[in-house]
Amino acid sequence: MSKIFTNPAQNVTLTISEDKLSAWLTIHKSGKLIDEQDILDLIDEAGIKFGFEDALRHIRTNNLQKEFDQPFPIAMCKAGTETPTPRYYFDMAAARRFDPIIEAANVARLTCVEEGTVLADLSESIFATQSSIYNVVGEMIVSGEKQAEYAQSIAGKNVTYDSEKGRFISTSAGYIGMDEDGIISIYDTLIINGNVEGIQDLRTPVDLLVKGNVLRSFLAVQGNISVEGDVQFSGINCAGNLSVGGVITFCRQKGLEVLGDLSCGNIRHSKILIKGTLNCGNIEGSEVVGEAGVFLPENAGIIHSTVQSAKRIEAGFVGEVESGSEVNLEITISPFLKYLLMQLTRELVHAKQSANQTMIQDLSSQISTCEKELDNELNNFLNRDVSEPAGIRIAEDVHPYVHIRIQKHEYQIRKHQTGLSIDEKN
């Protein structure tokens, strides 16, 4: 609704339009003298601050005559009518070329953005359109509905539009892509069709899907990893969950370090460190830590291996008939951190021997953090829920020689037996 202001003599009326983009003055024919101060007072009362020059320009352009009882403009502003133009803060050509299906050797060439990165901003070009910044009463003009609608139409996956600041922001780490319609997306998964072979340092902060095998390679991934085939003669650092459709074999040198869960087929001659749970087939000739639990089906077993957990170890069988191989099963406080601490300490010794001060400082910091986390785990253990005790369960054959340790209690299995179930003692 328009706002109307009238002077005390009732012979001058000032009207502000509903959209506040113009103000109109009407001088009524009354026979009374017009007081200039009355007009200034009305302008002040109405709070008109902008648009005076544009109104004069409009009067001159249209050759308007001021007549009694006919409103004429004293202030005018122009709202933008054109589609807002984004200003991009990334390489548009590279974004249009980006394809999440990529060759393993090309991953290192990609540029990744972090979560919270400003990708673009959106504002109407007031200089190009000769639009006003403010309305006649000094409020900033925003083409709200039009701008919001356009912004939402080009904000794709993992991109949000901050309407207050007019910015497009990434909601996930990943790689920028733009389609033919100008839609901006952040891709948080890379797909490799085929094997990853002979790649010694494949690093990415996003999820990785390998539609093949990982062979003689090293992967460091901040997200989840899914390998449809086997992992052989390789090392993997995974900050999320790792899923391997096939087997893990001969991964002892660098080993696998997983901060989430690991699911896979058989594990043979490998070193595997898991913060979460392990679900797998046979474990043979390997060192395995599954902090939150190690679970094998009843038709799978542990052969000539060392397996540790803070919670549960469950398998179908242990050892082999007349093989004489040794199996070590242990329930202990945070074996993941203990193993990691031992590994870091070993690396620190080597760093001191080579007098690498940068590496010494970095490793010392990591060891300090690891020790604090281990202290926290000890406190958690002391305050644990004893109604769900940790323990070891073997469903079928237990072949000697088996060494079992559950916290401070040790057990030796020197002859064959069927089934085994031992829980921690309070």
List the helices and strands and how they pair.
Elements: E1 3-6, E2 12-16, E3 22-27, H1 36-46, H2 52-61, E4 72-76, E5 85-88, H3 92-97, E6 118-123, H4 126-129, H5 144-154, E7 159-162, E8 167-170, E9 175-178, E10 184-187, E11 189-193, E12 196-197, E13 202-204, E14 207-211, E15 214-215, E16 218-221, E17 225-227, E18 231-232, E19 235-238, E20 242-244, E21 248-249, E22 256-258, E23 262-263, E24 267-268, E25 271-274, E26 277-279, E27 283-284, E28 287-290, E29 293-295, E30 301-303, E31 306-309, E32 312-315, E33 317-318, E34 327-331, H6 335-353, H7 357-382, E35 391-398, E36 402-406, E37 409-413, E38 417-423
Parallel strand pairs: 11-14, 12-15, 13-16, 14-17, 15-18, 16-19, 17-20, 18-21, 19-22, 20-23, 21-24, 22-25, 23-26, 24-27, 25-28, 26-29, 27-30, 28-31, 29-32, 30-33, 31-34, 32-35, 34-36
Antiparallel strand pairs: 1-2, 2-3, 3-4, 5-6, 6-8, 7-8, 9-10, 35-38, 36-37
Helix pairs in contact: 6-7
Walkthrough of the structure:
With 426 residues, the chain is an alpha/beta fold. The chain has three domains: 3-76, no CATH class; 85-130 and 139-187, no CATH class; 191-337 and 386-423, no CATH class. Helix content is 20%, strand content 35%. It contains seven helices and 38 strands. The protein has a ten-stranded mixed β-sheet, with no helix packed on it. A ten-stranded mixed β-sheet has the order 13-16-19-22-25-28-31-34-36-37, with helices on one face. Helix 6 (335-353) packs antiparallel against helix 7 (357-382). Residues 124-129 have low confidence and may be disordered.
